[in-house]
């Protein structure tokens, strides 16, 4: 079992724990953090699985880099929306 498979297995464990945290958390910030951790697990799986005997495949790595940029942007947007929701009188733990 190589290091690449370990990345994929750790990614699967992170996804499983994040799904549990997302379902069990009531606070919206905790749900957002769990959702971001799910994305990190997916990125680990995408880096770990598509390794070949001839070397590293560049396409999944490019997709992961693009995904990280999109995840950071989406997180920033979610934080702004959550902040406005709380300031307007909403409860962050509905």
UniProtKB/TrEMBL annotation:
It is a multi-pass membrane protein. One of its GO terms (cellular component) is plasma membrane. Pfam families: Oxidored_q2. It comes from the Bacteria. Its main location: membrane. Keywords: Cell membrane, Membrane, Transmembrane, Transmembrane helix. Coiled coil: none annotated. It is found in: Cell membrane. Gene3D superfamilies: 1.10.287.3510. The chain crosses the membrane at residues 6-25, 32-50, 62-82. InterPro entries: CPA3_antiporter_subunitC, NUOK/Mnh_C1-like. Belongs to the CPA3 antiporters (TC 2.A.63) subunit C family. This is Na+/H+ antiporter subunit C. It comes from Aliidiomarina sanyensis.
